[in-house]
Amino acid sequence: MNTKIIRLSTLLTLVSAIIFSKADASGLKAHPGSPSCRFLPGDKLWPSTHEWQQLNTSISGRLISTVPLGSVCHDPTFDAETCAALAQSWTFPQAHFVHPSSFMSAYHQNASCNPYTPKASPCLLGNTVPYVINVTSAEDVIAGLKFAQEKNVRLVIKNTGHDYLGKSTGKGAVSLWTHNLKSIEFLNYTSAAYTGPAMKIGAGVQAFEAYEAAAAKGLKVVGGECITVGLAGGFTQGGGHSLLSSKHGLGADQALEWEVVTANGTLVTASPTNNSDLYWALSGGGGGSYGVVLSLTTKAYPDGIVGGASIATQFSSVDDDTLWDLVSFFQSTALPGIVDAGAHVQWALLGPIFVITEVTIPDATESDIRGALKQLTGYLSERNISFQLNVTSLPNYLVHMERYLGPFPYGQYPVEQLQGGIMVSRETVKKNSTELTAVLRNIVTKTGFYLAPYSLNVSRPPGSPNAVLPAWRDALTYYTVIQNWNFTVPFSEMDEQERLLTEEIMPPLQEFASGAYMNEADFKNPKWREEFYGENFEKLKEIKKKWDPQDLFYATTAVGSDAWKVAADGRLCRV
Ligand SMILES: Cc1cc2nc3c(=O)[nH]c(=O)nc-3n(C[C@H](O)[C@H](O)[C@H](O)COP(=O)(O)OP(=O)(O)OC[C@H]3O[C@@H](n4cnc5c(N)ncnc54)[C@H](O)[C@@H]3O)c2cc1C
Ligand SMILES: *[C@@H]1O[C@H](CO)[C@@H](O)[C@H](O)[C@H]1NC(C)=O
Ligand SMILES: *[C@@H]1O[C@H](CO)[C@@H](O)[C@H](O)[C@H]1NC(C)=O
Ligand SMILES: *[C@@H]1O[C@H](CO)[C@@H](O)[C@H](O)[C@H]1NC(C)=O
Ligand SMILES: *[C@@H]1O[C@H](CO)[C@@H](O)[C@H](O)[C@H]1NC(C)=O
Ligand SMILES: *[C@@H]1O[C@H](CO)[C@@H](O)[C@H](O)[C@H]1NC(C)=O
Ligand SMILES: *[C@@H]1O[C@H](CO)[C@@H](O)[C@H](O)[C@H]1NC(C)=O
Ligand SMILES: *[C@@H]1O[C@H](CO)[C@@H](O)[C@H](O)[C@H]1NC(C)=O
Ligand SMILES: *[C@@H]1O[C@H](CO)[C@@H](O)[C@H](O)[C@H]1NC(C)=O
Ligand SMILES: *[C@@H]1O[C@H](CO)[C@@H](O)[C@H](O)[C@H]1NC(C)=O
Ligand SMILES: *[C@@H]1O[C@H](CO)[C@@H](O)[C@H](O)[C@H]1NC(C)=O
Ligand SMILES: *[C@@H]1O[C@H](CO)[C@@H](O)[C@H](O)[C@H]1NC(C)=O
């Protein structure tokens, strides 16, 4: 079984961009020195070196004065060899998540200090945080919260820095870096809502670590496709879709309890019965907004065989209309049955290519998989569309992940991209497949963007109520709209592509949307309140007001973020 499969990641790196130019710069006026705005380095009232030192002493020397990751590529700290290696690894997560201040959203990086701009151009902090607390305990967090509040310094929480919307960074901020909270403990959990195996993980545990630890105990847990994403951070707090989700639900549906430090510096446990409003908000209501999570206790499931498949079609022989008829048939007619068989399906549309990079059905044999795909393969055969189908049934979830999304530990997921996305309900896909397919066709053939949709059935209500966007429950497919970042063109050209995404590409797609996944969406989406949070928005705002009355926690498009505005110079100011 040494077959090579087509990986989504391989496809994603194939694609290049259509480029335009024109810069955009707008924003509100900053009020330096006014308490209605957070201070920035250089302000008269920015904390003194002595004050930072006092903070450092109070947390046993865990304060880091940051050096941007890209500084090795710029004078006067240029180092040819290190820089060349960094230029190779920059588009992969592992370059960034091990670093205290680095993050992955290329738009928010703003080319202020990357390996691709001239050596002679200065390395600027830009949107990178100047100070990081390397968190090991609740005390570290409490000291950071207190300092930020008293000194009027912006605060951010960073775990891995994966966030596409730039939520894990902020200009002039002190960052609570949770990456090193790596504890893992297994429990037989008992509560009114759930009795069974569970895993209690520190906030810094990444999916690959959780999968490996669980497999060693004969268990599996619900985590993301990109195996370096954190489990307890943005993933579970934002909803969290997984290869296991059609069988076991979303990440947030697995949450049993959270240990969290709240804005006023109190360590609390949030569960369905204790601080239940906070539990509800943290389980799906978005990362970086209600408190600083130290640990998550999540359900675990007995491990076992996992069925899988990938399909590639050979289109040299068919015309475009045949291809798009197939797409329409696939999404409206074949997919509902496939996901109802317990499958998660990752597929892609890139120019003239339609490919299914991964089908996952827990507990399925090869014959179960072939059965689930029969309607699709029958369609292809009837129309003489040649295709290649690879089917697997591997001994456990870890081996399946390794095969489709490995290699462990880090996988090969490129991350630097422009990103938009919408959720479409089963009913709409069925009713409007022709119109929807026409919009998809237009995107992949006429813009520099491509589509990497995934399909699932997470209709089953969670064991305890949570703040997962209700639209997930009848969603069939999530359509992500992507353009790989091109670091060789001027930033202004990528900014124009971002404008194109928000203003021209997304609106026709949004006609079909029942919502959008807050973690995989356009950060400039003007409809973020209704699309990311839906009917939960007002309740989340009330919970936010109770637990964070001063709006200490800010992140782009997070609940409560509309209390603030980022000015043209990057300064955070109260609205
Ligand atoms: C390549 C790639 C693949 C992905 N695949 C999937 C996938 O398969 N399924 C899926 O659901 N999502 C996926 N995502 C999206 C992912 O879930 C989000 O980017 C998520 O926000 C990452 O969480 P993090 O904690 O690892 O990252 P970070 O960027 O560090 O944090 C994300 C957000 O959570 C907040 N946060 C982090 N830690 C804490 C904490 N301890 N307490 C409170 N707030 C915290 C941050 O402030 C920020 O707002 C993918 C993203 C990438 C880049
Ligand atoms: C199926 O396996 C073959 C043989 O390893 C490989 O060449 C091909 O790319 C695979 N196809 C898909 C769709 O994964
Ligand atoms: C980036 O853009 C340049 C100029 O248009 C182009 O030559 C190059 O192929 C692009 N690179 C990628 C990775 O798309
Ligand atoms: C904090 O203290 C530690 C240990 O004394 C030191 O290594 C570190 O540089 C200090 N951080 C700052 C920002 O001064
Ligand atoms: C990017 O940096 C420039 C200055 O080099 C600044 O004017 C602009 O506002 C920044 N944009 C973002 C999105 O941070
Ligand atoms: C952060 O703290 C961890 C745990 O003490 C330590 O292993 C690591 O070296 C620290 N990282 C940095 C960059 O200081
Ligand atoms: C949980 O219970 C099972 C079955 O009794 C037992 O084998 C296992 O060791 C227990 N796990 C823990 C972490 O206590
Ligand atoms: C509820 O939370 C409090 C602290 O907020 C804690 O002391 C208590 O043990 C928790 N109770 C349960 C059942 O988790
Ligand atoms: C498919 O190919 C077979 C045999 O070559 C042929 O008889 C049949 O008409 C073709 N069907 C279509 C839909 O083209
Ligand atoms: C979806 O289909 C309905 C019924 O046919 C139609 O009225 C509606 O305009 C379609 N919506 C879109 C966005 O095309
Ligand atoms: C989705 O899966 C659930 C089981 O989790 C099943 O009851 C339901 O019929 C499936 N289909 C739809 C449309 O929800
Ligand atoms: C912190 O905030 C919570 C929620 O408003 C409140 O119940 C608690 O009493 C506060 N604790 C302190 C020490 O102020």
Automatic annotation (TrEMBL):
Q: PROSITE patterns recorded for this chain?
A: FAD_PCMH
Keyword Signal annotated: yes
In the record, which residues are listed under signal peptide?
A: 1-25
- A molecular function GO annotation: oxidoreductase activity
Q: Which residues form the FAD-binding PCMH-type domain?
A: 124-303
What keywords sit in the KW lines? Oxidoreductase, Signal
Read off the SUPFAM superfamilies from this record.
FAD-binding/transporter-associated domain-like
**Highest taxon in the source lineage:** Eukaryota
> PANTHER family of this UniProt entry?
FAD BINDING DOMAIN PROTEIN (AFU_ORTHOLOGUE AFUA_6G12070)-RELATED, GULONOLACTONE OXIDASE
Q: Into which family does the record put it?
A: Belongs to the oxygen-dependent FAD-linked oxidoreductase family.
Q: What is this protein called?
A: FAD-binding domain-containing protein
- Origin organism is Melanomma pulvis-pyrius CBS 109.77
